[in-house]
Amino acid sequence: MNYQGSHLAFSQLLEAWEKRSAENSDLLPTTLTIHEPDQIKLQALSEMYQLPANEIAAHLLSIALETLEAEMPYVPGSKVIRVEEGNEIFEDVGPTPRYLETQKRLREKMGK
Q: Which residue of 21, 27, 41, 86 has the smallest Cβ count within 10 Å?
């Protein structure tokens, strides 16, 4: 019996479980209504990767939200909030500050 091979296989398995556990540690159950074509796509991914469709959806939603946040426009206001390397930095009057404040309020409400 090849002990090295089985040791490596178990080590890789445990590493994969640890990674998946960490990625899913803060998943919360929720109900989403989605379009039928999207449900079919999720089911296809679920079958391909042998993972629960709701887990795949959670990860896709997380990446989509991170991308959306990164693309929120900075809209400079008239108030200078600081000076960096001689350049005036103006307050952001776009959607980002409202979005961040709403997140903060919701986290506090949840006790996070």
A: 86
Residue ranges of domains in the chain = 33-71, 73-112
pTM of the model: 0.73
Q: Which residues contact 76 (CB under 8 A, 6 or more apart)?
A: 90, 91, 92, 93
Alpha carbons 54 and 61: distance in angstroms, whole number = 10
The distance from CA 31 to its chain's CA centroid, rounded to whole angstroms, is 17
Between the alpha carbon of residue 40 and those of residues 44, 47, 49, 53, 57, the distances in Å are: 6, 10, 14, 10, 12
Sign of CA dihedral 27, 30, 35, 37: positive
